[in-house]
């Protein structure tokens, strides 16, 4: 018990305090997602050393950087061959490549290709070279990250999606099995070390996609941590300023109208009534609610609903566009309706989702002491969560500790003031707690 209390205090000091002190996704901002999961995992394994976890994550990040360097070298070799073949016909490219080595050859190739495109003479033409190089570097690192995770066989646990070990990072690293939320956190930790700026996005709290904003302004791509081998989702930039949209399909440039036509002509499934689709096809999305204090009621909006469901490699609305590639990687177009459903999710909320997966498992299997411990972590993460306050009271009541259960339940009812749909059920649970208090003497001490 003392070890668990010490672990919870370390979580507050090393994760929650830095999380509340700075920008969530600024470069180098604390805390590290891997550190957050490591401290949470000490709840189940108090002897776990966070530094050992961080070392394993760094090893994966080093593998990503090595693989990205290999991808860049291969691309440079291809570019050099292309330059050699076109030097006679392109004096400008020949001049630019002299004395610059690999960087000069790549610059000349990019410049030559760009000069033949319609955007070269428009806004952002020659001045966009640095952004194109940044995008090429990001593409190499994202492709490397996906390759490393495929080779390491990290995947969503479709057989037992509610196993708590899917979220405890020491077990996740050992078994290579996780939930969409825990896998997303692991990817973010690796990407952070590899210099890859990914941000998590979700739709109604269900599943997680990781977004890379393209430096060239061409839009964004999304990767699914549950299926690293799946095609990326490409969201073209909505060019309201009249600029064309860059569709990186073998250097093809598409206008707004052409993108819309492409969507209409290549959509294999109707978008009618697609707004209510489920983002999960392999795992349960939610559990039935119960008004009994022995089971949790639905989670409040402060942490979010949804279960362990992930995208499972299936793009929203299942749009498939054969032949589209971004920097050599297959992509599917993400339609405007599906893109509108995605919203960024903070690290705090994503951690809350991950902890919620574990809490639900313990509650539904009747392991209430463990559920209470997880709720304490959730309340440390978000002290103002009314849902976690309610759940703490319900679990304490289920453990036969009515004197401790009274305050959380009574406070919850004061906070929601009858506005929550579960208020009446919680009020009945509070009456049962009050009756139990009248029958039982107060606890000693």
From TrEMBL:
Family annotation (InterPro entries): SirB1_N
Chain segments carrying region Disordered: 265-293
Domain Protein SirB1 N-terminal residue range list: 133-227
Highest taxon in the source lineage: Eukaryota
Record Pfam families: TPR_9, Transglut_core2
Protein name, UniProt field: Protein SirB1 N-terminal domain-containing protein
